[in-house]
Design goal:
By secondary structure, the chain is mainly alpha-helical. The protein is built from two helices and no strands. The N and C termini lie far apart (41 Å).
Length: 66
């Protein structure tokens, strides 16, 4: 195990707050604008954008699509 607790931080893609905010708003809007879930949508947006930057699909695999 690495002695640096943030060793993974160096390999994670940096995402602009504006991009996260836009994605979080879109997710919130598509989910019928529930009250009180700001943090959840922010974190979901951040995960999705980081996965896209790494080239990992956050949805169904291509094999699962018809």
């Amino acid at each position: 195990m690495s002695s640096d607790p943030c060793a993974a931080c160096a390999t994670e893609p940096m995402i602009a707050h504006d991009a996260i905010r836009e994605r979080a708003y879109d997710l919130w809007d598509r989910n019928h604008r529930p009250a009180g879930y700001e943090l959840e949508f922010w974190l979901m947006a951040e995960r999705e954008l980081k996965a896209e930057r790494r080239g990992v699909s956050s949805g169904l695999s291509d094999a699962g699509r018809a």
